[in-house]
Write a structure and sequence with these properties.
InterPro entries: AbgT
Keywords: Membrane, Transmembrane, Transmembrane helix
Strand content: under 5%
Shape: flat
Largest sheet: none
Number of domains: 1
Pfam family, one: ABG_transport
Structural class: mainly alpha
GO molecular function: secondary active p-aminobenzoyl-glutamate transmembrane transporter activity
Organism: Vibrio ishigakensis
Distance between the termini: 58 Å
Length: about 170
């Protein structure tokens, strides 16, 4: 039992500081400020919607390398990016779809993915020297190919006007 509590101690300390950060982030309204200033910046750049969506996909893919949990990642960037993109005319539904594309493509190269250690163990059955770097470098071409393919797929859906879902538009008008 003492061994279990020893391993739980680090988790409890980390959870405490994460909770403190989340409360401070929520009470400070930094997310709202980032959304407002980000929307102003996007409006000033006058990027086409497609470029903005590609940027969100790339941002999500990069954040995925640092934050393993999809729900934690959405809780962190969703309240900032959705209002920001709504201000430049991109619907919340399209923001969610772009998030899912960016989130899915970099899972296999992120050591923070829940199943990453399991995949390493399975690889070690066949190649004993396999490690985190070996698996990440092996999966990198697949990750890049999926990033390009899914992004083109989402943009093609948008260009062809194929609905994302029931009454789910691509654009948002204020």
């Amino acid at each position: 039992m003492s061994d279990t509590m020893n391993t739980m101690g680090a988790y409890m300390v980390m959870s405490f500081f994460c909770a403190q950060f989340l409360v401070a982030f929520g009470q400070s309204n930094i997310g709202t400020m980032l959304a407002l200033y980000g929307a102003e910046g996007l409006k000033a750049m006058n990027l086409p919607g497609e470029a903005t969506v590609v940027g969100m996909i790339l941002l999500t893919a990069m954040v995925n390398l640092l934050v393993g949990s999809a729900s934690a990642k959405w809780a962190l960037i969703g309240p900032i990016l959705v209002p920001m993109l709504m201000a430049v005319g991109i619907s919340p539904e399209l923001s969610q779809a772009a998030y899912r594309v960016g989130d899915s493509v970099s899972n296999i190269i992120s050591p923070l993915m829940v199943f990453f250690p399991l995949v390493v163990v399975y690889c070690q059955r066949y190649v004993k020297s396999t490690g985190i770097g070996t698996l990440a470098s092996l999966m990198m071409p697949f990750s890049i190919a999926m990033l390009i393919g899914w992004t083109i797929f989402l943009l093609a859906y948008w260009a062809l006007g194929i609905p994302l879902g029931i009454a789910a538009p691509y654009t948002y008008t204020m």
